[in-house]
Structure formats: C-alpha cells, structure tokens
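Researcher: Here's the sequence for the chain we discussed earlier.
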Amino acid sequence: MTLASAASAQDVTVPVTSAPGIPATGSSIADSSSDIIVTATKRVQTLQDVPVSVAVTSQQTIERAQIRDLSDLQSVVPSLKVTQGTSVAETNFYIRGFGNGAGNVGIEGSVGVFIDGVYRSRSAASLNDLPEVERIEVLRGPQSTLFGKNVSAGAINIVTRRPQFKPGGSAEVTLGNYGQVVAKGTVTGPLSKTLALRLSGNVNDRDGTIRNLATGTRLNNRDRYSVRGDLLWTPTSQLGVRIIADYNRIDELCCGTVQLLNGPASQFIGAPRPFGLGAKIGDPNRKYNRETTLNVDPTNTIVGKGISGEVDYDFGGAKLTSITAYRDQLNNSAQDVDFTSADIASRVDHTRTKTFTQEFRLASDGKGRFNWLVGAFYDHENLETSSTINFGRDIRPYVDVLSGGNITLLETLQGYVTPSIVAGRTYFQPGVAIVAPFTLKQDSYSLFGQADYKVTDALTLTGGLAYLSDRKASTSNIVLYDKFSLLNLQNVPQLPYIGVPANAFAALNPVQFFYRDVPTHGPVNYPNANESGVLKAHKLTYLARAQYKFGRVNAYVSFSTGWKAGAFNLSTDARAPNNGVGRTANPESVTLYEAGLKTNFRGGFVNLAVFNQAIKGFQSNAYTGTGYSLVNAGKESVKGFEIDAAVRPLPWLALTGAVTYLDAKYNSFTRAPCVAFDTVRCPRNPSTNAIPFFRDLSGQRPAGIPKWNTSTSATISQKFGNGLSGFLRGEYDYSSKTLLTETTPANVGTFGVHNVNASLGIASEPLGVQILFWARNLTNTKTVVLSFPTVAQDGSYTGFLGEPRTFGVTLSKRF
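Model: Thanks. This is the structure I predict for it:
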C-alpha cells in the first residue's frame, strides 16, 4: 500500500461517453489499467499507453471520497497541492512543488485548469462545486506543447459527462456536521433523434468551522450554488456539436485566520488600556481551537458565468475540433487586514475578468505508423481590479506606540512652520489610506503540432513544437491618501527652519506602510515617459520522446520545455523599476528530463516516473506584510520520482496508493524579499531602522515543497445477493513537514499533513439507490496549511488552518 497510487486508480469503473467516431468504453481499473481512458495528449488513449506522467481520478472515486472541489482533490493526488489564502479567489495550485499566482491577479498560475477543453484563466474560476464529472486528469510537468498557455508546471484537465440519448439522471442529498446540506442532480435525455440535453445543478450550504470571538459569527462557511446546461447535437455520424452554459455563485464569510506568533506590536494591541488598545488578539497556544478575532467579518463573493461551443467533424482519416468559449467572472472581497478585534485597517477588493478563447485542432485518425496533430489557440482577456485600504479609529493610537510618540512630536514641530499640520490630527486619521485600481488587457496565441512515428510495433518516436506569443497591456491609477507615507523622512522641509536636522525622524520609516524608501514617496502611475505598461514576449517550446513496449511494460524517455509569459504586480507594493519591488516579472522557462515505466498485469498496475525539472526565471510572489514582492528567481529545480499503483490481491479487496519524492532547491535566487527575522542577510540600517530590499536564498530549499508526499487507499467490496452490494473504503494521505513560506521563520511556519478519510456504502442495483456514510479528516488532525507575516505588525505571523473533521451521510438515486 505504501508504494501504491493516489488517484490514478481507485477500484472504479470509468465510463467514457462516445463522441463522433469514438466508441464508448469502460472497465474496472482493478482489472486492468489499460482500460482507463485519458486525453492527456489531446487524443483518446489508455492510461497505460500514454507516455506522460498523469494521475486520473474517476467519478466513483470523487463520489466515494466526497471530493467537492479541486481543493479536496489533493487528498488523492499527492503530487498536487492546493492552498487558499485570505479569500476563496486566492487559491493556488502546485504540481511537483511548482506553482504561483495566488493573491495577485496580475500573475497567472503555472498550473492551467481546463474544464471540457476550456481554459480557466483564474484559479477561482475552477473552484465551484464540481458538476457531473467523468474523470479528472492531473498532468505533471510542463504541457506547453499541446496545452499552450500557463501550463509550465502542469495541467488539470476536467472532463464532465456528456448528454445521453437514453433518458437518465441522478439526484443526491448530503447531510453532514456543521449543518451541512448539499443537494445536486442531473437529468439527461433526447430532445430528438439527433439532439440530447443534460441539465445539472447543485447547492452547497454549511455553517462555519471557525468562530470569530469578536463578532460571534462563524467563518469558513459554505454558501454556493451552480447550474449548468449541456446540449449535444449529432446530425450525422461525422459531426458533433456540444454547447455548454453555466452559472455559479459563491457568497461566503471567508477566511478565518489564527495567530502563530504575536510580536511586540500585536501584544500592544491586546494589552489592556491604558497600556494597550485592549483588543482581542489570537493566542498562538490556542491556534487549533478554531477561533479568530476580527472586528469585521471577511466576506467573499464570486460570480462566474460562461458559454462554450465545441464542434467535432470526422473527415475520415482526420478529425477537426473547434472549441469557442466566453467567460465572465466577478470577485468581491473584504477583509480585516490587521487580524485583531482592534479597528486598525481593512481592505476591499473588486476584480472583474472577461475572457474569450478559441482553439482549433486537426488530428489524424490514429491508424497506421504515422500520426499527427496540429492546432492553434487564442486567448483574449480584459481584467479590471481595484484594492482599497482603509484606516480605522484605532490606527492613530497604534502608530503612536509603534513610533514611541514621535509621530505627535513630528506634527508639533512641523506645525510651528506649517499651521495646517496639527498634532494628533494630521497623520493616520480614520478613512481611506490608498486606492489602487489597475487594468490588464492581454492577447496570447499559440501554434502547436505533434507527431508520432511507429518505427516498429514496439518503438514509437514523438516530436512536438509550439510557438507561444503573449502581449499584456496594463494601466495603474493609484492614489495615496496616507499623508505620512507621502513624507520624505530624509528631508522633512519644515525641520531646518526650527534648527532640527531634516532627517531627524528617518527612523520612523517602518510606519510608512506604503512606498517607504522610494524617492517619490508615493506611486508613479503608468504608462508614463519611462514605462509603456506593455509586456510582449514569445517562445518556441518543444518535445522529444521515445516510447518502447516490452510486452506488458511500457517504457519512455522524454525531454520537454515549457513557458509562461511575464506578469504584472497589481498590488499596492508595486514600484517603478530600480526602486525595490518591481512592477513586472519576466517569463518563466521550464525544462524537463523524464523517464518512465508503466507495467500492467492482471489485477492492477505499477507506474514509475523519474524526473529532473527546472524553471529559469521562476515568478516568486511572496507576501511581505504590506504587499507582494514579485521578482524572478534565477533558477529553481526539483529532482524526484513518482510511483503510482493499484492492485486487487483478492476479489473483494482493492489497494491503491502513490509516493512522490521531491528534492528541490533554489539554484540561484539573489532577489528574494528581505525579512526582519533574518538579521544576518537583512541587517537593519541604524539611521533609518529599515532593512534591505533583497536577500540571497541560492542553494536553499524552496518553501512549500514537502520532500515526501504519499496517498493510499483500501476498498473492501461485497455483493449480498438480490442486487445488494456494499463497500468499505479507507484513505490516508501524508506530507512531510516543510516550511510553508519563506517570509515566516521556520520555528513558527513548519507543518506537515496526516489525513485519514473513510466511507461506507450500501447500494441496491435494481432500485438504483445508494446510501453512503463518509468522513474526511477522520482523526481530526490539526495542521496549518499557509502562513504569512501579520500585516504591519513586525515579528507577528498569521496562518490558515486545515479543514476540521467533517462527516455525513449521502443518499443518491440513479435512474
């Protein structure tokens, strides 16, 4: 079990609905992995035949493991990791340790998500509760040659069930702890001899799992619903047209935080008056009590809608596929960014993204020794985003203590020369501190092709090329209202008039929360005379692979490259070039050397992949406590292996599991953001109390990449007669301890994962009814999944907890 595979096979049947020219198939994975259908190479192949490291999760596994969204998927795919930040929209995917994009909408992810062939450009677009899913494929390693845009680390390919010409459907209701109620259903059937329809919908409602001690409400609840229509038209055996329209909405109180360490500033906030602000703060010793202290509940609203059309035409010898899609997504969120019950600062974000994509593919029929595929992909996106940070009524007493009372002294001295500056009433007043609106318009396209040649019945050689081009145009219109951040503390103009050095208050630099240490002491918006606000780049990626079949053993070696275009730092911390944290990051370039063995035997399979993967120019996007530091790492690499396996040693027992080993390091990273706790590489300037912008992490292991990840499952199945059957399933997934982020110290930010899931089901085949009892995180393991520096509280660190134990019962009916 320890050397077995996570999601590649879970004692399931994978039904594959027939498309024009493709017969329907299906088989029990425990009998043979050669019958697991995948489209990892944009062709219909079996898992055993496809020479790519890919994990497949079937519909039955999704149901039995109660995988509600892609965040749950990581429990059965150990090479995939999913993290969520201060909002549902700040969700990031990692494959083999590589991934980025969360928290900064100007940065696209390195892991692309595709649903029925449609690219989802933003992570939140893929987090609605999953519809009727046929399978989920996780492709590991760069996939730029066939998938093109933003798949430099891998891709997640979700395939939903197509409409059927035979009437049918399903309905299910789930009741669980925390007041969970989930209802979902789908119906399908013919509208005519050539037209079939599927309608699906779901509702997911649950109370929160974290209690806000300041307001009494519960956070991290679920309040989601989605509807979907899927129309299939097959007027001839050669032509198929599929049109899908969907709408989904998330409206939740998310996300609750816990304190990992309280530094002096946080302790002052929590100290009783008159020695502090007398506010409630989180207790690091009670972080697993699932309690938080926020004076304002965080809110998240995500509304996504879209329509796509797929046309397939079989010419007889070649098949043409066209996929056209338009998506519109709105993200609104609000957070208490000081993470205490004091009214110090809050933030409101609005983002709207409109995306149009078009793909064409022409592929040979797969017969003969030579087969090929050529295609083109186009993506156009318009994004508008705005962040507003507001100061609250406690901001002034808070900074007075941080500054040792020197803010008031400075106002007093300035007021002798400039009467409009009044002590206690000029700097850090309640109200808007900064407004940061951005726009981003991008156009990208790719031209790609791949060819296979069977030299012999056993040996196949593959080559592929893709030309990728990307253009982004961005504008900023930031307005800074924080008068103190606008001050040049190196040269305060009023001080020399009263005999005080102009830089006498330079040590107050740390409480300039915006644009500190920048000559302008304020935003320089773009486009301007020196900055066009445009990023343009292109790249040729390629693939070379040799595959050889030794009977039941399929071996392959490959070399491939990947690419992701440049990015804009759309955050308040972005600055003009040569002034610290930059506006932009250059593209990422990926190289991968991989060798694999896939062996198939009666009752199971074992697959092995060994790889050496490197990213030059990795787009690091670290949160520093006031904003995001977007910089390119010189080179980041990972060496490792993946073992996937499934076996049925007895007719009633199926075992699966996976092991992923990752040996990662920064080969070169000289511009990592500095942190206060690294006093050796980030010494403070005694005159300004400021630390350098950057430190050198070359040779160090990157944060967030566990060395070991494993996932196992065991399923006992039994038939009782009269059409009754049952199963008992247990799962275990593990991640070794790792530093979660480089901007938190190891002693407070290092955690691992030990998770047990279980389910018990009884089904009646004649009635089409199943009752399922399930539990996720059965042992209620407590862990932190993400950490970061607490906003504007040096020496304090905040984190997000993993999900608690959840359990329930699901009653489903198929007809």
